[in-house]
Amino acid sequence: xxxxxxxxxxxxxxRTDEQQRITQxxxxxxxxxxxxxxxxxxxxxxxxxxxxxxxxxxxNALIQPKxxxxxxxxxxTSVEENIYKVRKSAGMVFQNPxxxxxxxxxxxxxxFGPENLGIKSAEILRRVREAxxxxxxxKYFDYSPHNLSGGQKQRIAIAGVLAMEPDIIVLDExxxxxDPLGRRDVLKTVMKLNAEKNITSVLITHFxxxxxxxxxxxxxxxGKIAMDGKPAEVFSQVEKMRELRLDVPQITELNYMLKKSxxxxxxxxxxxxxxxxxxxxxxxxx
Amino acid sequence: MSIEVKGLNFFxxxxxxxxKKALDDINMxxxxxxxxxxxxxxxxxxxxxxxxxNALLTPDSGAVYLNGNDINADKTxxxxxxxxxxxxxxxxxxxxxxxxxYKDVAFGLQFLNLPPQDVDRRVRGALKVVGLSEDYxxxxxxxxxxGEKRRAAIAGVLAMEPEILILDExxxxxDPKGxxxxxxxxxxxxxxxKITVVLVSHSMEDVARLVDKVFVMADSKIVLHGSVGExxxxxxxxxxxxxxxxxxxxxxxxxxxxxxxxxxxxxxxNDAFRAIKDVLDE
Amino acid sequence: MNERLIIGQYYPANSxxxxxxxxxxxxxxFAYITMIFFAESLLSWFFAAVYLFAMxxxxxxxxxLMLKGLKSILFILIFTCILNIFFAPGETVVFEFYFIxxxxxxxxxxxxxxxxxVLLIISSSILTLTTTPLALTDALEFFLRPFAKIGLPAQEIxxxxxxxxxxxxTLMEETEKIMKAQKARGADFETGGLVRRAKALxxxxxxxxxxxxxxxEDLAMAMEARCYRTDIKRSKMKELKFQxxxxxxxxxxxxxxxxxxxxxxx
Lengths: 286, 282, 266
Fold this sequence. Notes:
Chain A is an alpha/beta fold. Helix content of chain A is 39%, strand content 24%. Chain B has a six-stranded mixed beta sheet with strand order 6-7-8-3-9-10, sandwiched between helices. A four-stranded antiparallel beta sheet of chain B has the order 2-1-4-5, covered by helices on one side.
């Protein structure tokens, strides 16, 4: 079942001057078609300005398409009455961990979403505890988020979304400001939620090693989808990725260089283990 | 210019309830003209350490020497020291404030009482080094893209013509293209200006690409230092402190364990390609 | 992290006072502060002091922290002391030296005033030391709620306070960071006259404003994404609810009021 559906969606940012005259138009999303199945883990790549963040905001109904329709969990996001239903089913985590935590106590912050939904106290408390538990932050319930690390803050932001019991979680470059340890923890959390709770995950990222963990990669360019496929399929097209000003993981790059120099091996190798197996096999044969 | 740190200890909130040791017996030497990396995860003390290099922080014990002179011997010289040591903070674009890129780069120079033609020469020079052409001079810094803003901010430090350049996480938060551009620029910078460069980072790939020597920090201490190869060879230690060597290092290790004997000391894709090719071509 | 980054004065401990409903603590402090203006006889003063001392003990907050608040009023105390002692009219002269005349009435007046100030400061310290800023906000929202009928947005005011509490440390840290960064670029904040120093603030304030606007924008979006809306009543994870201890505390407060009124005339 498709849980997110974009049909011929366009969106533009309009800048106006003091007299409300249009000074600049920028079409961030152009005639985009996309469908994401329930339970999928999709990574979205693309350089800045390719339309990734706009895509994320369209899913959460933070913005509505100029033309076309976005359907989330069966709700058309352009319909006024659907907005809060959409936001409840598609939670969002943003880039800057400091700018999305609202309360000065961890537990209170996670409770913010359910409180907005008007849920009863006892149920909120249950959800908050459960959400913090599943991101491994329950023991920080009474802490001030100010003294936590970036990775911990992002996990609290994820818990804040989880407490609303969403079907989808959209993460807009959640690891961009984190160190390797924080990145690893956040990624692990996302993968765990996807696997255990079947939460559809859309991860926007600049890190190729993170994208390699997804089931599907979408590459955006100029407001359109430039590439769409399994990580091995997408990363094996090294030339095209470079054209789109993106990297590929080191192993995939090595794979590509070897192949191009005449080594008889398949393309699309992503992990150290696959590469070692392949090279050892080649050496035996030689 | 060389930097030497001897027995440096530093506490946050010294003597208070919340006292915390931030640097624990740091000893290091960075020679003139070296390109050095300092790596460690957030909170390991690396940002605190580099703020000692230009006297923004003063050690509780121990000392920092520039070309053999203790920088805290005479506090009135601190402003002068800060001019010689260019420190580019994390997310330096957050300090931009002037109405044009040109004026922002010139900000620090107003305190030097230079003749106007010198100011102009330095500003133009710095902007050229970071690759911002004349078209950008009169633009508002807030109109630029993320990567351009950051380059403008770095130019502001370069205009002071520092003898040592320290960059704290210069690629944080940028997209791959912005990352590559900045790193390329830094590399050229070190080579062209022949100044000492200290790169603070948690990205092993960045470090592997650029530096000669690495210091690894964890829990307020320097736990490892040496050439890039020597440091990456200790992948277990790196992992235990929450860092990881580049993917290629793991591949080479795995290969040698499986009897695929490629040559050691490889940690970039290009080197790995050659090493593997050599074995396969034998 | 800096010690001054700790907002409010909350001292974490596990005491009956800490666990009380913040509204009760508000009422208690308010009642106490009002009542010490009624204290008259020596016995009533003694009663008020003993009551407060008991609260300090119950709160499990180190007395040192309680007294810290008094430092700030030391100057006022000395000043009023001088005024009262030297210039208060009175007949019973205790000490006379040229034009200086110290009277018993003056001394008493000062003693009363000093006692009032000290008790006032300590009682409000007990409130802020045992109650988190967030709980104070909740209590305030409750007391403001009746005014919602005349158009006062109690829920939004409380939300604003919550956000302010959350961001004060972040902004202070940011200010420090920007200052350091500009210093590293050669800026000089320490020397020069007033005009020059004021001008030196521009490179700090402009980036601070810009980043604050960015933060506000981000935060607004994050709040919206989590279904924040002002057109409906939000629920609460921790509804303020009176427990048995809260009722007992109210009885205690009433007892204090009654006691003080009685002792006043003895």
